[in-house]
Amino acid sequence: MTIPATRPTVDAAAGIEIRALTAADAHWHLDGLCELLEDGVRAGASLGFLAPLARREAELDWQDLQPALSDANLLWIARAAEHIVGCVHMRLATTADARHRATVERLVVLSTHRRRGIAGALLAAAEREALERGRTLLVLDVDAAAEAARALHRLGWDAAGTIPGYLAGADGMPRDGTRLFKRLAPDAR
Ligand SMILES: CC(C)(COP(=O)(O)OP(=O)(O)OC[C@H]1O[C@@H](n2cnc3c(N)ncnc32)[C@H](O)[C@@H]1OP(=O)(O)O)[C@@H](O)C(=O)NCCC(=O)NCCS
Hints:
Distance between the termini: 28 Å
Radius of gyration: 16 Å
Largest sheet: 8 strands, mixed
Structural class: alpha+beta
CATH topology of the domain at 9-140: Aminopeptidase
Number of helices: 5
CATH superfamily of the domain at 9-140: Gcn5-related N-acetyltransferase (GNAT)
Bound molecules: coenzyme A
Strand order of the largest sheet: 1-2-3-4-5-6-8-7
Helix content: 25-40%
CATH architecture of the domain at 9-140: 3-Layer(aba) Sandwich
Strand content: 25-35%
């Protein structure tokens, strides 16, 4: 397995370290990863869970992902003062007709650490890696009404369209979902 960037990159100005997690080291960060999900869901983010998110449910979810971390399944964390403050997961498509594509999921930054460029730094790491692996198109689904959609727009993502009632919010109520995309190599098809 050749998960990249176990050598972390550090944004010295912000004191934020971005690093990719292997299946082996994800285990050691379980508490911090659970806290991130709990914090996001508590604040109403659509991250695949209903509120309140129990610690056990968050643990089981990360434990499901952990062994799957591989060349095709990448997870980056952002750390500030040794504490996990953000993460992003990227899945490389594996079918023969989609080997130029990757799906970004679970982009979340601790509510106390937002608007400091952390999501931008996490996505920059994912984009660099995507390009190195020949992935020129990224896609991501987001709650159409969420602030996240605005943040992603600022980060260069475009909306492909909105599907009414695509997902349920953390409160269980239906939400429209927007599919966002970002082309990393504008001339690529
Ligand atoms: C979306 C999210 C990850 C953004 O994280 P962040 O670290 O605060 O984002 P950044 O600081 O890197 O900001 C990136 C850009 O978006 C802008 N931005 C961030 N939050 C914003 C908001 N609430 N409204 C409008 N713009 C926003 C920033 O100003 C910045 O733009 P700029 O570079 O032009 O100044 C964070 O709000 C979050 O965790 N939300 C809950 C989880 C979620 O909904 N995830 C998305 C679905 S997977």
